[in-house]
Sequence to fold (492 residues):
Amino acid sequence: MKKLLKYELTFMAKFLMIYYIITLLLAALTRLFFAVATTTFLDIVAKIFQGAFISVAITTFINVLMRYWSRFRNNFYGDEAYLTHTLPVKKGTLYASKVLGGVITMFVTLLFIIACVFLAYGTPENFEWIRNTFTSLETAFNSSLGAFVAFVCVAFVVQSLTLMTSGFLGLVIGHRFLRSKIGFSVLFGAVAYTLAQLLLLVVVLIIGAFNGEIMTMLTSNQGATIDALTTILIAGSITYFLACIGIYWLGDYFFKKGVNVD
Amino acid sequence: MALLECKGLTKSYGAKEVLKDVNLTIERGKIIGLLGQNGAGKTTLIKLINDLLTPTSGEILFNGEKIGVESKKHIAYLSERTSLDKDMTVEQIIRFYADFFEDFDEERARKLLADMHLDVKQQLKKMSKGMQEKVQLVLVMSRRAWLYVLDEPIGGVDPATRDYVLDTIISNFSEDASVLITTHLVSDIERILDEVIFIGNGGVLLQGNADEIRERENTSLDGLFRRMFR
Fold:
């Protein structure tokens, strides 16, 4: 596993390095131009860099997902499969190394993007603005925002992992077909991800049956409360986490049943 | 115990049966030619041996055990396609092989690469297809495997290089190891074969000692191939 991960992460690092450099550069330029934006022209330039930075940061994250799906396919069903499947390594270990590599790459990329956001916007004035906004929102909603923000992040991460493992499962099942393998891969990946979303909806409805605030939020036009949203985010994080494990187990099960490389 | 044994091996793609109830045995210390027309099932059989395909029914035993981690430690496979990561340099690929295959002889690989004037610092994607094939052949033949499975090892190289490739194969495997080779170029490999397996119509048509078959049929293996598949 260690050896597989080493090659996995080295490959991804080489691929993502250029995206990391561009993101870092744009974050630094955004910070620099906002700091010296004393004229309209410099303000426009700063905003252009800000737009570019946000676009590249999002692209980098999406690229991790896309590249992992593509690498999964190349390594297990493309030309490289002729080497991958002849390595003296258990099928389950091969599968786990891809998922673990994806999880690590995704975490590192997220941390990197967060660090770049701090680089771009981490000025004392911005921190002060965030603190004031938080305080006024907490006063307005009469509730703490800390847990809400933390679970937004957790839910985003586990949801992204669910998306990635759904893609892997789709590729494994899709490549069991004789024809239209890519088509079936996309179909089964989408089905797995949609089922995870439906599961979340069912869980929220069940919680709503016991939680008046959530049910009111779901069935009326009344505005959401921070506590109700935090409860949904916690439920969502747990549901996505369990869905992620279930989808991983299914993918691993079908992968271990054997492959058919073209 | 046979080195490799296929028992009632069947492989279907939908309704099409490519291999049907194939039974064959490969002993140690032989160079065996797996011969047949296009679409006869040679590559399918080889892919089944290397766990790249899942049998519809039947089983393959290597040294008495089903194909798995243990068999992969001792089977060296040269595929028709370039299976290496083309972004890697030859040096990195050598490290990769040394990391994963305990029987990989790094020194032998470096010597063979030098003999073939291949630069270890060069990226695979910057090499011609022929050079990439040579690198793959060197890596496979640098393993001290029990069974070498070579799918069309001379198909992509020029006639002048073919003899060199065949000599590399002959001189780089130990006496108790076996080599299973597929090719259409029967006349080119005829001289090195101890045994032949002719496959067609989804099954084994003929298997036996190359010399005995030549004597019995009173023709070369190439001649017999042409006669069988006319």
DSSP finds nine helices and no strands in chain A. The mean pLDDT of chain A is 88. The two ends of chain A are 26 Å apart (CA to CA).
